[in-house]
Write a sequence for this structure.
C-alpha cells in the first residue's frame, strides 16, 4: 500500500494523543527529511519523513512493546515492509534485534534520542529555540548525564558509529536539521 504523509500522520494520531509525542514525531519527521536531502536521497524525502513520523507509533499506548507492537499495527494496515523495518530498527539492542542497515535507518537510530536532548538544551535557553543554539552548548549539557537523563548517550554514540560520523558532526547536523523544523512551528 502506498502510504501518503497525511495517512501516516492520521495513523500516528490514532495511537498518540499527547502533544509531546506528536511534537517529537513531527520533529523527527523534519529531521529525517533534512538528512534525506543532505545525504543525496532527495527522491526519497517523503519516505524518510514518513519513517520519522511513524517511528514511535506504538510508544504512547504500548511502551513495554515499543518497536514490536508497531510492526503488527503497520502490517495489519498493509504498510510497506521498508517502513516497518526502518521504524522498528530504531529500537535495536533496546527492544528488538532488528539492526539498522540502510542509511535512512542509521540516521533515525542516531537522531531519535539526540533530537530529544537538543530540544531539552534549547528549552534552557532564553530564546527556547534551536535557531541560536550552538554545538558547544549541546556538548556541555551532553556531558552531564543527569541532564535529559532519558536521552541515551549510548544510543546516540552507537548511531554516530553506525553512520561512521564523528559525534560532533552528528550533533551539529542535527541542530541544523532541527532549525528547519523549528522554522515552521
Amino acid at each position: 500500500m502506498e502510504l501518503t504523509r497525511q495517512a501516516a500522520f492520521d495513523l500516528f494520531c490514532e495511537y498518540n494523543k499527547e502533544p509531546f509525542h506528536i511534537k517529537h514525531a513531527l520533529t523527527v519527521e523534519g529531521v529525517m527529511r533534512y538528512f534525506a536531502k543532505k545525504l543525496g536521497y532527495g527522491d526519497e524525502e517523503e519516505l524518510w519523513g514518513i519513517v520519522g513520523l511513524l517511528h514511535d507509533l506504538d510508544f504512547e499506548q504500548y511502551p513495554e512493546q515499543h518497536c514490536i507492537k508497531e510492526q503488527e499495527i503497520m502490517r495489519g494496515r498493509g504498510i510497506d515492509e521498508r517502513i516497518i523495518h526502518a521504524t522498528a530498527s530504531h529500537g535495536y539492542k533496546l527492544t528488538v534485534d532488528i539492526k539498522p542497515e540502510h542509511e535512512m535507518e542509521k540516521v533515525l537510530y542516531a537522531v531519535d534520542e539526540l533530537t530529544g536532548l537538543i530540544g531539552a538544551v534549547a528549552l534552557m535557553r532564553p530564546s527556547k529555540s534551536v535557531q541560536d543554539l550552538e554545538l558547544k552548548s549541546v556538548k556541555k549539557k551532553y556531558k552531564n548525564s543527569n541532564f535529559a537523563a532519558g536521552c541515551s548517550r549510548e544510543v546516540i554514540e552507537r548511531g554516530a558509529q553506525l553512520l561512521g560520523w564523528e559525534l560532533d558532526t552528528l550533533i551539529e547536523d542535527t541542530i541544523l536539521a532541527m532549525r528547519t523544523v523549528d522554522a515552521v512551528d
